[in-house]
Amino acid sequence: MFTPDRVSIESESGVLDEGRDDPRSALQGQRLETPWDKLRVAYFSSYALWNYLTIPFLYTNPGFVTEELPTWQEDGEYWRAFAFAIPVWPQLEVPLSIITLAEVPTGEDACLVVQSRLGLEPVQVLRFKAGLCHFVFRVEIAGGRKVVVRLSGPEARCFSEGGVYWNKLLRPMGVLLPEILLADLTPSDSIFPFVVLEYLEGTDLCAVYPTLSSNEKFELATELVRIQESVSRLPHSSRFGYAFSYESPPIHRTWEEVILVILRGAEERMNKRQHPGRLYADRTRQLLCSYTSYFSAVRPTPFLDDVTTKNVLVHQGRLSGIVDVDQICFGDSLLTIGLTRMALMADSFDLDYIEHWMDLLKLDSLQRRIVNAYTLLFCVVFMSELGERFNRAEAKDIDITRYVHLESVFERLAI
Length: 415
What we know:
- Helix content is 39%, strand content 20%.
- It has 415 residues and is an alpha+beta fold.
- The protein folds into 3 domains: 1-58, no CATH class; 61-199, Phosphorylase Kinase, domain 1 (2-Layer Sandwich), CATH 3.30.200; 203-413, Aminoglycoside 3'-phosphotransferase, Chain: A, domain 2 (Alpha-Beta Complex), CATH 3.90.1200.
- The strands form 5 sheets. The chain has a 5-stranded antiparallel β-sheet, sandwiched between helices. A 3-stranded antiparallel β-sheet has the order 1-2-3, covered by helices on one side.
- It is elongated, with a radius of gyration of 26 Å.
- It starts with a strand and ends with a helix.
């Protein structure tokens, strides 16, 4: 016999075998190794079955926010998928302030964080589409104030942890990161780890690049050089690659190993779908292997690898901030210039910004060839990402026009 306040085991004639009042309290502190008695099993099975049966009807009540998601496909079957934000009702047996029957966070999740954790009333929410690991929302609050809410799936929590860790180290050094207003990476009232950030005015560099003057590009490059020099003064690592913290250090023994791992990731994405760009990956591998002596001289120096065109904010022609730093890379900071150069070429922009950056660093001819090799590497990476799903609801077909453009970029660089 099951009610929310009592569970009992009785015979068909009503004779009590055993019972327990407030059965929920018996589950407090339950661990994987905790033995279950008959009443625990009876209570858990009963309230789970009851919730499965009644939830579709519960969601029709006033106060629930419902959103239909893209169709879910699994084992050849197609299912309708929904996300629900629910009010906090004391009579609910399951004490959750939000249930999301979906694999991705939504704007309602971001608003709920602002409302329940900051005590502020959201009036508008906007999804930023740029992130690959996080789901990022700008939430406007009554009175015009804005905050940024970053939500992550459990599998991306390490990136959120890294973002919090490096933010605390880098902001005092003058790196223009937003202030963290609130972070909870193991929330009990939401299935999504979250970070609430100060909102920085500005637009991604890629969106405003054509409007910038040559002098503004020079000033921007100057500021990035300053920031990278500051980051390089952090403690070095004994190994190479990406790190979420000094307690979770990079793992690669050489810088060449890091570069070839990046290429291998692109090759694996291509091999999954018989991608037409695999030939370019082979050519890039041959080129990179010709620079072994250069790579062997690289030291594990910390640098920001993701201050390119989508993580750098520009406001009124000046750097206004860096969106986030989830990881720091230990190795050759010229990698960032190669990635930024490729991003600009992919959008058919001029390379004045890159020329300013390289001139400020006084790169010699070998270093400029290395930047070109890194640009080719990321050209292959960009090819491999065409058709990938990332944090979209579903994967897209390969954009053939963009792929052909990347092919032409590769051939120009490979001359």
